[in-house]
Design goal:
The protein has about 270 residues and is α+β, with helices and mostly antiparallel strands. It contains seven helices and twelve strands.
Length: about 270
């Protein structure tokens, strides 16, 4: 076994490693390409058996993610762990569990990850437009929508939120979309890490007064339709049983259980 630092030149080997599971991990593969396999807070390592790449370890912005086609002994990476900067580990549950004996665990959380390749549900309110947020006024309404719920507890003012979100949306491919009823924003969702053929869906929220009417499902279908038309697979991370049912009813394929491990940095 040999551990090597990977570069853009190793990209085909990485694709060969993911092989038929590549569509399940476009969001991860795109992150490698978008960062050109390198950077101050971005490093990629590979485990080789002879000349064949058999696993990768990605250290990206304080996070460690590991991928292999089968369960392997991850102790081969133990020597380089002290040289890496991380406070969190995340990835497929069974794979990341191999690292638990190697790091001081602060918390260990399980959720799920899925991908939408096809939508199997029909829109219930086709007369309502799913719109993309593009103005300060729409972001102000989005702030008010978030504040109306118990799920979101924003610790910034409306002006701060609008300025930060506007800068983020204008400086990336990410988007926020919403559904309006009687000129009121009643539900919304968005994307992060949107790239060439993938987007991670976040922030699904519905105003408490408009729940159980299918509006949340409606805005998700609208977002999924837009992304798929652009050749981008939507990826979802979730631990809520109700959300899981909704996503599956829309056509989501559940890929794996997803593990997030927070590291006790004082004990590293």
């Amino acid at each position: 076994m040999e551990i090597r630092k990977l570069s853009r030149e190793n990209h085909q080997e990485v694709l060969d490693l993911f092989a038929d599971e590549t569509p399940y991990y476009y969001f991860l593969i795109n992150e490698l390409l978008d960062n050109n396999y390198s950077g101050e807070a971005f490093r990629v390592y590979g485990e080789y058996e002879g000349d064949q790449l058999v696993s990768i370890l990605l250290n990206n912005f304080g996070n460690l993610t590991y991928y292999a086609k089968t369960l392997r002994d991850v102790a081969v990476y133990q020597e380089i762990l002290p040289r890496l900067s991380y406070f969190k580990l995340s990835g497929p549950s069974e794979l990341m569990a191999q690292f638990l004996p190697l790091v001081p665990v602060k918390s260990d959380t399980l959720s799920y990850m899925g991908v939408v390749k096809n939508i199997v549900a029909q829109r219930r309110y086709p007369q309502l437009s799913v719109r993309r947020i593009s103005s300060e006024g729409e972001l102000e309404m989005h702030y008010d929508l978030l504040q109306s719920t118990q799920e979101y507890n924003l610790e910034v003012s409306r002006d701060e939120y609008v300025a930060k979100e506007l800068k983020r949306l204008q400086g990336s491919q990410d988007r926020r979309v919403y559904l309006s009823v009687d000129n009121k924003m009643v539900c919304a969702c968005g994307t992060v890490k949107e790239s060439r053929n993938s987007a991670i869906v976040i922030g699904v929220v519905t105003h408490p007064d408009y729940r159980r009417r299918g509006y949340g499902t409606e805005v998700l279908i609208g977002l999924f339709e837009s992304l798929l038309e652009e050749g981008k697979y939507p990826y979802l991370f979730y631990n809520n049983p109700a959300a899981r049912r909704v996503y599956k009813n829309l056509g989501m394929e559940e890929v794996c259980q997803w593990r997030v491990v927070m590291v006790d940095e004082e004990s590293k």
